[in-house]
Amino acid sequence: MCGNFWPTAARDAIDLFTLRIAGEIGRLACTLQGLDAIVFTAGIGENQPEIRQRVVDRLRWLGVELDPQPNEANAFRISTPASRVVAHVIATDEEQVIAEECFSLARNTATR
Fold this sequence. Notes:
Layout: H1 8-32, E1 37-41, H2 42-47, H3 49-57, H4 68-72, E2 86-90, H5 94-110
Parallel strand pairs: 1-2
């Protein structure tokens, strides 16, 4: 955890960052009238167990609970078996998706 290791400004930034993420998830949960799962992805979501834990700590009201060992290991499923909302870590490859979309667009443009 951040504890006293981080300077105050860094601690505040992480607190704000996790608050904003949890706030967006909370708004989505309200709009959808609940959630089945939360997926953490991309650089921070895939590789930062502490950030995931801090986000989920703010979402306990949804019934989501992380299992510490899978969370630390960046496992696929990081929620406990008793968690009402399943939490996953899924790797993404945004660069590959962008390349595929560009290739498709270029191919379609060339055939016109």
